[in-house]
Design a protein that fits this description.
Number of helices: 3
Distance between the termini: 26 Å
Strand content: under 5%
Order of helices and strands: HHH
Radius of gyration: 13 Å
Shape: globular
Oligomer: single chain
Number of strands: 0
Number of domains: 1
């Protein structure tokens, strides 16, 4: 696997830690799964409506900071 240099907000880190505590699964596995799920949603939406997919990405980027 390759390392992806990504910065997470404090809120995202707390949510990740909570998921680790609840699920008892390594934080890297949870983060990879979340990224895969999110990318699948973005790709599926972009196949139907590119503008909505772009809006979804941009809005959630702002919300994640």
């Amino acid at each position: 696997m390759k390392m992806l240099p990504v910065k997470f907000s404090d809120t995202q880190m707390l949510k990740l830690k909570d998921a680790v505590d609840v699920l008892g699964i390594d934080n890297s596995k949870i983060a990879r799964a979340a990224l895969r799920l999110g990318l699948n949603q973005i790709v599926a939406l972009s196949a139907k409506d590119l503008e909505k997919a772009i809006d979804l990405v941009l809005i959630n980027d702002v919300r994640s900071k």
